[in-house]
Design a protein that fits this description.
By secondary structure, this protein is an alpha+beta fold. The protein folds into two domains: 19-138 and 282-292, Porin chaperone SurA, peptide-binding domain (Triger factor/SurA peptide-binding fold), CATH 1.10.4030; 155-256, Chitinase A, domain 3 (Roll). 58% of the residues lie in helices and 16% in strands. The chain has eleven helices and seven strands. It has helices at 2-24, 38-50, 56-75, 82-95, 100-109, 114-135, 143-152, 174-187, 194-198, 219-226, 258-287; strands spanning 27-31, 34-37, 160-170, 204-213, 237-239, 242-253, 290-292. The strands form two sheets. It has a four-stranded antiparallel β-sheet with strand order 4-3-6-5. Strands 2-1-7 form a three-stranded antiparallel β-sheet. A hairpin with a 2-residue loop joins strand 1 (27-31) and strand 2 (34-37). The longest helix is centred in the C-terminal third of the chain and has 30 residues, at 258-287. It is elongated and about 75 Å long.
Length: 293
């Protein structure tokens, strides 16, 4: 009998211990009847600290918006699977250049449950899909305005077409590879001999880039190319897999605004989409039944 009482007491203690977190959680806000607890808020605050900071007010507002977004996505028939969230979690890890395992460790060491980040990722995926389905059609971009703006961005430096070769010195030792590239540059005498000249160097490659317009390059590189004649080669630049130079095999004047216009179109579309998405979220929040306790 005594043993039975001891076992019963232990069982009761285990039940109470397991129920502890649920009892401790207190509902602070409901959004269309769905709760947000103080535990969720504290977890989001901890997550915000990793991103630069933010108190409970910011955390609460984020959670409200997340819930509204997920609810609207569900109403529109949009689902986010666990596999989708897994993929999003890996993307976050890649963006900060750590493994998924190390990201979990980073979160845990800073008092952030992994599920807190996964919940945020789920809301983000749902909202992005919702915006793509519902909002994209609302965004209108004037092609006439884009063309006019593109023409104003043409300059003397970016009004050329080129046929180019890239000379790449492969390797992680940037100083050594740059020295090799400078020796190559000094000996370079035109595209016809580019490959033969590269054979004198270890881990050097020449590849045809074909026709490229100046507007496809960063301004600094575009400016440098504009000052070179056919048979010229740019100064060495450190790139991801080594040191690169561009050789000019042909050059002609071309006031092509295609690439400028594409960039303007993308920026205008992104800005328009962002503005419409913000309006949409504001509408959803205004319609939602949000009760703070």
């Amino acid at each position: 009998m005594k043993m039975h009482r001891v076992l019963s007491a232990m069982l009761l203690a285990m039940i109470l211990l397991a129920a502890g977190p649920a009892i401790a959680a207190s509902v602070k806000v409901t959004v269309n009847g769905e709760p947000i607890t103080d535990v969720q808020i504290s977890q989001r605050v901890a997550l915000l600290k990793l991103e630069g900071g933010g108190g409970s007010a910011k955390a609460t507002q984020q959670l409200i918006e997340d819930l509204v977004q997920i609810q609207e996505a569900a109403r529109q028939g949009i689902e986010v699977s666990e596999a989708d969230v897994d993929s999003g979690f890996l993307d976050v890890a890649r963006n900060i250049k750590v493994s998924a395992t190390n990201l979990r460790t980073l979160l845990t060491n800073n008092g952030v449950p992994v599920e807190a980040l996964r919940a945020r990722i789920k809301a983000s995926i749902a909202w992005n899909r919702l915006v793509g389905r519902v909002i994209s059609a609302r965004v209108q971009v004037s092609e006439a305005d884009i063309d006019a703006k593109a023409k104003t961005e043409l300059t003397a430096a970016n009004s050329f077409d080129y046929i180019l070769k890239e000379v790449l010195f492969i390797g992680s030792n940037a100083s050594k590879r740059t020295a090799d590239a400078n020796r190559y540059k000094k000996a370079f005498n035109g595209c016809d001999n580019a490959v033969n000249l590269s054979l004198s160097y270890t881990d050097a490659a020449v590849r045809d880039l074909g026709r490229r317009h100046a507007t496809q390059f960063p301004d600094a590189l575009s400016n440098e190319l504009s000052k070179l004649n056919v048979g010229g080669i740019t100064k060495p630049r450190v790139v991801e897999n080594g040191v690169s130079m561009l050789a000019i095999c042909a050059k002609s004047v071309s006031q092509d605004t295609t690439f400028i216009a594409n960039n303007i179109r993308q920026d205008a579309g992104n800005n328009g989409l962002k503005q419409e998405a913000e309006k949409y979220l504001a509408e959803l929040l205004a319609k939602a039944q949000i009760i703070r306790k």
